[in-house]
Amino acid sequence: MSRDASILASMQLKPINLSKPPNHAVIILASGLSLRLGQAKQLLCKDGEPLICFMTKLALSTKPQAIIIVIPDNQPSIASAMDELAFQYSMIQMVVNSTPEIGMAYSLNLAIEAVTQLTSSLIERVVIMGVDQVLLDEQHLAKLLADKRSVVASAYSSWQYSNNMNLNETSAATALKQNIIGLPLTIDYDLLREWQALLVGDKGLRYLIRELKPSQISTVVNHQLSYDIDTPEQLAYAKQQGWLDK
Fold first, then answer.
1. How many whole angstroms separate alpha carbon 34 and alpha carbon 87?
2. Structural class in CATH, domain 24-164+174-241
3. 128, 135 in Cβ contact below 8 A?
4. I need a surface site. Which of 48, 67, 185, 186 has the fewest CB within 10 A?
5. Closest Cα to residue 91, out of 127, 118, 124, 55?
6. Nearest to 225 by CA among 192, 176, 190, 186
7. Cα(162)–Cα(151) distance, rounded to whole angstroms?
8. What is the pTM of this model?
9. Using CA atoms, how far apart are residues 246 and 242, in angstroms rounded to an integer?
10. Are 222 and 140 in contact, with CB atoms under 8 Å apart?
């Protein structure tokens, strides 16, 4: 066998692995106090498990390097609900927000700080998601991660239950406001760090996203994300539809 043929044979015996390791982290903002709902939305049940666990498993499906979950202080039942998953997956890190009442921006700041403390230097993007969009699925998260623009956000309508509407009539129970750009979203890690100092009070990322050039942002439309749970009426409707356990 010639020298060139030997080299080729060696290359065939040792195929090159072209798969790229995961290069993103996930932040789950779950420190809300659920004041309008009157109970912890993190502990509502979907498919037999607390909603916070269901959402964490969705995050795990994206194969991230780390999952940072921000939860409120003095809520031991929420922390306990995550014990088994956190023990099973070392990539899960719980961050406690001692002052959740001051707004979402502080929760996001805590999560960003946690991401910066990770030993891995491979993180290029961050997925940011909430805990109460009960129809979120793996396919939507995969679409967000497939696009590599600076920000890839979800686009959907909002819904608001009205007491004088019949819950059996979906169209009547849903008041639509178009063109909401929000969570979940993916964002370049460097851009998120740049924006960190601008996150104040209850102002999240939306007003910063609006200032991006069109070439820097894209959206994935999914009107199922309209259905989040903020009020007892919305909870009752979600249970009636089978989106949450009764």
1. 26
2. alpha beta
3. no
4. 48
5. 118
6. 176
7. 34
8. 0.84
9. 8
10. yes
